[in-house]
Every structure is written in structure tokens, then in C-alpha cells.
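Section 3.1: Structural characterization of target chains.
Under the original work plan, the team committed to producing a structural model for every single-chain target entering the pipeline before any wet-lab resources were allocated. The record below documents one such target. The sequence was received from the expression subgroup and is listed exactly as submitted; it comprises 318 residues.
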Amino acid sequence: MNKNYFEIMRGGVHTTFQDSGYSNVQHLGITTGGVVDNDLFRLANEIVNNELLTPILEFANQGPRLKLKKGKCRFTITGDVAFNIWCDGSIVEGIPYRSYLLNEGDTLDILSTIKSNYGYLAVEGGFVVTQHYGCSSTLTQSQIGPNEGKKISDNQLLYFHQDGSRLISSLDFNQYKYQDDAIRVLRGPQMNYFMQKVIKNFYSKPFTISNTTNRMGVRIEGNKISSIKSHNIASEGIIKGSIQVPGNGNPIILMAEHPSIGGYPKIATVILADIARIAQFTIGTKFNFKEVDLTDAENIFRGKNKFFESLLNKIKCN
């Protein structure tokens, strides 16, 4: 067994091991899973010089409190997150997007996300986790993946591969500049299920993030959408970003742990570049949708990737 490990003093609201997700098992009824915010996942691993797809800890709202029992650990936290480090009886207020070194007996307390939902903890060398179907993402709904498919809980031990170095890495992270405040979408495969005036309202009237949002889906309300046909269709494959409209008229934007098939009509699909953004909207946030075409979506995605590539070159090490 690896000699380096943390003891979990508080598991947090929903803390799980995640990586980029399952890419080859949807035909078995297993969803893709993986991190909700791929941008923050990538930055976390880059800051501590890990391989791109090294599994990390994803936490929602309140994060875990971890005490380092054995070894030394260099770590970073990405996201809009408040955290403290307890070291030799003193408290250091942590800064996201930079690395820190923990020694035996030190405690990392991830207090909360601030104006977002998800944050990420990466350790240099990575955590010791199992793989399932070549992936190390936890699917808590189906109990598949590391940690027996369960979220991190109080008093358990988390092992990591190597002693951390004393290298300090940091990134002056400026958020990606979006063209406007709207969430951009493509036309959905069942848009013909909705009258033109309903479609117009879908784009012109704001929605509000509900209090039932989770890793399966972002539920939105405040602008009911009704269908001229049935609110049930023959079940078919669905993807992350699909906007389903159930019978109550409150759409659901599918997220990382979405089902592999679904039977509600889909009015639109959030473009890949905006999925992390909508997932990070907090409860009560109001927003609008904006339609773009496939060429626009591809260009926006390339532009965002170019921005994050440039960020990686700005990581400072000393």
C-alpha cells in the first residue's frame, strides 16, 4: 500500500474522484460521467505538472477537510473557492490557481465555492484510484468507479502516489471572455414539437436555475415550455448539453451523469463551449438562450481552446 495518505475529517457535500469520463460504454447503458468543468480540471493538472487526464477530486459547494497523515503533498485548487491551510498552529488563507506544499500534520480545509458550484483539487503525481472500463470517474447514481462508486465520506483515507516537490506554480487566471451573457445552443432534434411562439419565448424570456440542480442535470424554471405533441417520445440516445422538456414544462439541461437514453423531446442543445459555464451558474441565476449554427459553435469552441492553450503557457514556476 502507498505510504502517502490523507485522512478525511469532513467529506463535503458531494466530493468524488473524477477524470475525463467514460468514452466507450454508452452501449452498455453507462453514461459518460467525468468532470463537470473540464477547463478547471485541465488547469488543475497542469499547475502541478500532472498528465492531462490524471484523476482529481471534484467537490460541490462545500469541499472536504483533509489532514495529511503521511508524506508531503503539493496540491492546487482551481475554481472560485475559499480554502484554508492549517500549518504549525497557524492558518494560511489559500489562493486558487497556485500550488502549496503540505507536510505531515497539516490540514487543508476547503470551505466553499463562492460564486460557482464546482471546484477541483489536484495533487502532484495523482491520487491512488482504481480504473473501471479504463476510466477513473465516479458515477454515484449507478455506484460505478473509484471508491466503490461512492462519494468521499468522513474518516476514510485517501492515498496519493508521491511526495510532493517544493516547486511553486501559479497562474494569474482571468476568466474566458464570453461574447454575451446568453447560453448558446443549437436547434434540438425535436424542435418541431413546439409552436413558433413557444420557440420565440424560449429565446426571448429568461430562465432561472432551480434548487434541484446536480451532476445529472441543470433544472431551469420561470419560462414554461409546452409541446404541441406528446411530452414523451420513443427513447433514444442523448448527450451532455441536451435540453429536454418534460411534462411540467420546466426544461432539464443534461450534465455529466445524464442517462444514456431519454424519452422527452429536446428543444435545443447547449454548445460544448458553454456547458461548464451553465453548470457553474448558482441557484437563482437568471439567463437567456441564444441560437447559433454549427459553424459558429465550432469556431467558438476553437477560440475557447486557443484561450486555454495560451493560459497554460502563462503558468509561472519557481
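The radius of gyration is 20 Å.
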